[in-house]
Structures are given as structure tokens and as C-alpha cells.
Write a structure and sequence with these properties.
Blueprint (H helix, E strand, L loop, with lengths): L1 H22 L2 E6 L2 E6 L4 E7 L6 E3 L3 E4 L2 E8 L11 E3 L6 E2 L21 E2 L12 E3 L6 E2 L12 E3 L10 H7 L7 E3 L3 E3 L6 E2 L12 E3 L6 E2 L12 E3 L6 E2 L12 E3 L6 E2 L21 E2 L21 E2 L21 E2 L21 E2 L21 E2 L12 E4 L5 E2 L12 E4 L9 H7 L4
Parallel strand pairs: 3-6, 4-7, 6-8, 8-9, 9-11, 10-12, 12-13, 14-16, 15-17, 17-19, 18-20, 19-21, 21-22, 23-24, 24-25, 25-26, 26-28, 27-29
Antiparallel strand pairs: 1-2, 2-3, 5-6
Length: about 450
């Protein structure tokens, strides 16, 4: 009796499966250049193949009609594989899956819009899309299969949604989105760098506008050019003592960066290193640093004060330009020159002590320092560049030492409060009132 029951149950299951299989008929149907697989039960269409491989532009229909019945296109197979002339494609919002190899070998495809209906990108989806430059992955995507973007040498940016749980860290991003290039993945909020990494390469986190914090392991010795440029949400960063160099543009545009600890292992701050760090209030520069590169603190409008160590020998061009909150600064006696536009538009700068080691004031050095009332130029200075004090509207008086043998044009233009310029009568360049007027141009 028991065996009979088992047999009847098994027969019943087979009957149900057979009935379902008969009911869910899959129909291969060609409409124009598209070949579809139609599911008679779900009334969904799967795009199998696009017949015309020489097509340049394609619009995928949202539905297809077969024998009076409408079938909605919900998935794409490897239908555009090796369509090397394809340059643009419109995917309807009905599509939820882009299948394996769907666009592999589409070597002319430079960009693509993935609709927010898509939840999965399957294996080798964009393999070999050698012209693909950038791509946005919508927050709806919860699955990305391996090798999705392999063989895409032009792919510079993959944008992901920071709130998508599958992209909650850069480690996950790198694991999920496999590429064979230095593709930048933007959108991750948090980043974990493994201890096997010794160098953060050029522009590796560039434009990661959602990145708030990052731990750099002690294995890293170099932060490459533009490493964190444009990370506008980055608030603070600890640089390990293993790092010896901060590359050019390293933190450019990190507009939320409030503080940074520079270890004593670092010897130079590269060109534009902190350019545009408008929230940076203070920074400690270790005595190991010998050079502040051009544009180093350009536009650091919240920087109130800064101590420059005696190891620094020169302040390069535009080094503190636009530091509009900078009230005072001590320049060490090791510095021999102030570069072009070094303190331009430091509109809160009231006073500055120039050490006797300085021999030249670069062109536009104090241009636009509207709060500067007075300044002592040491007798070591031999040249004052063009536009040096132009627009210093609060400057009342100035003494030019006898050591100065060169003064650039428009040096004191637009200084309406300047009532006295004192010169040494023994200085040959000021041997007459005519020479004085010619040399010291004012308005």
C-alpha cells in the first residue's frame, strides 16, 4: 500500500511538471532585425540576437506583438555581441537584465545609459568595448557578474550609487567591478586599502565625491599625483609615517578637508597639493619639508594661520594666493624668495615679517592684500616685482631700502591710502624726483 502511494505521488508531481512545461511554451520569433524568445506564460520577451551586425544606432522596443498577443521585453541576451559599428543604443525601462556578453566586442560604443529598471549585469557584459569612456551604474543594480568591463582600455570612470549596499566600500567596488585598467570608481563612501598596497597611483581616488574617510596602511610609501583630487566630502585623513611624498594635486579640491596630519617622513608638498581645500583651518608642516610647491595652498580660504618650518627655503608662486582668512604668517630665515603672487588676495593679512634672508619679492606678491596697513622690507631685498602691492587699499606708508635696485611696473597702483613712500637718497635709482615717479608708479 505504501509503495502504491509513493508511485501515485511521484506520478502526480510528474503530471504537474509536464502540465507546466506544456503551459509555459517558449516561442522563437523574429521581428525585423531582432530575434526573440517569447514566454507564453509570463508574456515576457527575451531578446536573443540582433541580426544586422553593421547597425550604428538601435532602439530596443519595449514590447513585441506575436499573433495578437503583446510580449514585454524584459531581458537582453548576447544580442549585440560583435556589433563593432554600434555607437548608440536606447534601452527601454522594461528591461531588468542585461545578459552575458550583450555588448561584448562593441568597439565603437563610447557611452550607454542603463535604465533604473535594470537589476543585473551578467558575465562579460561589456567585454572588449574599447571605446567605452564612462558609465553610470544605477542604484537598482544588485548583481554584477565577473569580467563585466574587462578589455575596456578607454574606460576612465564607473559611477556607482553610494547608497547601494553592494558598493558600500571601495574594496567591494573593486571586487565586484573587475577591470584590467586603472578605472576610477566614484561613489563609494568608505574605503579599505589592503596592507599589500605600497603606492596609491595617479588619480586613483579622483572625483570620489562621496568618500568621507579613509585608512591608509603603513605599507604605503607614496601618494601619487592627484590621488585624492576632487574628494569633496573627505573631512580628515591620517597619513602614515611610511609616506615620503605627497604628489602634485594630491588633495586639490578636497573642499571639506578640515585637518590633515603630515608625518615627519614627508620632504615635499607638491604643486597644488592643497589647492582649493576651502575648509582647511590649520595645518602643521613638519621640519622635514624643504619645499612648498606652486599653488600649494591656493584658495585655502579658511586657513587662519600657518607655521612654516625653518627647513623651507622658498615659497613658490601662488603658494598662499586666495587664503582670505590668513591674518598673520611667520616666514623663517631660511626662505630666500617670495614667489609670484605668493600672498595675492590674502585679504585678511594685517602684517607680515619678512626675514633678512629674503632677496626678492615676486610680481604680484601682495596684490589685493586689502587689510595690509604696513610692511617692513628688509635691506636684503634687491628687487620688487611688477604689481607687487597693487590693490593694497589699506597700505598707508612704506620704506624702500637702499638695497633695492629694481622695482616692477604698477607696483603701488590702486593703493588709495598710500600717502608716503620713503626712499634712500643715496640709492642711484632714486637720484631724482623724475626717476622716482618713473620707477614707483601709483595712481
Amino acid at each position: 500500500m505504501k509503495h502504491l502511494f509513493t508511485f501515485r505521488f511521484a506520478f502526480f508531481v510528474l503530471f504537474l511538471l509536464w502540465g507546466w512545461a506544456v503551459h509555459a511554451e517558449f516561442i522563437t520569433y523574429t521581428d525585423g532585425d531582432f530575434k526573440y524568445s517569447l514566454n507564453s506564460e509570463t508574456k515576457c520577451a527575451h531578446a536573443l540576437m540582433y541580426i544586422n551586425k553593421d547597425i550604428k544606432k538601435v532602439t530596443i522596443p519595449e514590447s513585441v506583438t506575436y499573433k495578437g498577443q503583446k510580449y514585454v521585453v524584459t531581458s537582453l541576451g548576447s544580442c549585440f555581441e560583435d556589433c563593432s559599428s554600434l555607437i548608440s543604443i536606447d534601452i527601454p525601462s522594461s528591461v531588468t537584465e542585461i545578459g552575458g556578453g550583450c555588448f561584448s566586442g562593441c568597439t565603437s560604443l563610447a557611452s550607454i545609459d542603463i535604465p533604473s529598471s535594470v537589476t543585473s549585469l551578467r558575465f562579460n557584459c561589456f567585454w572588449g568595448c574599447s571605446s567605452l569612456v564612462s558609465i553610470d551604474i544605477p542604484s537598482s543594480v544588485t548583481r554584477i557578474d565577473g569580467n563585466c568591463f574587462m578589455g575596456c582600455p578607454s574606460l576612465s570612470t564607473i559611477s556607482v550609487d553610494a547608497d547601494n549596499p553592494i558598493f558600500d566600500s571601495r574594496e567591494n567596488c573593486n571586487a565586484i567591478i573587475e577591470t584590467d585598467t586603472n578605472t576610477m570608481i566614484t561613489g563609494c563612501k568608505e574605503t579599505v586599502i589592503p596592507t599589500s598596497v605600497t603606492e596609491l597611483g595617479e588619480f586613483c581616488f579622483k572625483g570620489c565625491s562621496s568618500l568621507v574617510s579613509i585608512d591608509i596602511p603603513s605599507s604605503v610609501t607614496e601618494l601619487g599625483e592627484g590621488c585624492f583630487s576632487g574628494c569633496s566630502s573627505l573631512v580628515s585623513i591620517d597619513i602614515p609615517s611610511s609616506v615620503t611624498e605627497l604628489g602634485e594635486f594630491c588633495f586639490t579640491g578636497c573642499s571639506s578637508l578640515v585637518s590633515v596630519d603630515i608625518p615627519s617622513s614627508v620632504t615635499s608638498l607638491g604643486w597644488s597639493c592643497f589647492n582649493g581645500c576651502s575648509s582647511l583651518v590649520s595645518i602643521d608642516i613638519p621640519s622635514s619639508v624643504t619645499e612648498l610647491g606652486e599653488d600649494c595652498f591656493l584658495g585655502c580660504s579658511s586657513l587662519v594661520s600657518i607655521d612654516i618650518p625653518s627647513s623651507v627655503t622658498s615659497l613658490e608662486s601662488r603658494c598662499f594666493e586666495g587664503c582670505s582668512s590668513l591674518v598673520s604668517i611667520d616666514i623663517p630665515s631660511s626662505v630666500t624668495s617670495l614667489g609670484y603672487s605668493c600672498f595675492e588676495d590674502c585679504s585678511s593679512l594685517v602684517s607680515i615679517d619678512i626675514p633678512s634672508s629674503v632677496t626678492s619679492l615676486g610680481g604680484g606678491c601682495f596684490r589685493g592684500c586689502t587689510s595690509l596697513v604696513s610692511i617692513d622690507i628688509p635691506s636684503s631685498v634687491t628687487s620688487i616685482g611688477v604689481d607687487c602691492f597693487r590693490g593694497c587699499t589699506s597700505l598707508v606708508s612704506i620704506d624702500i631700502p637702499s638695497s633695492v635696485t629694481s622695482i616692477g611696473g604698477n607696483c603701488f597702483m590702486y593703493c588709495p591710502s598710500l600717502s608716503t613712500i620713503s626712499v634712500n637718497v643715496d640709492n642711484p635709482i632714486f637720484d631724482s624726483r623724475e626717476n622716482c615717479n618713473a620707477i614707483i608708479e601709483t595712481d
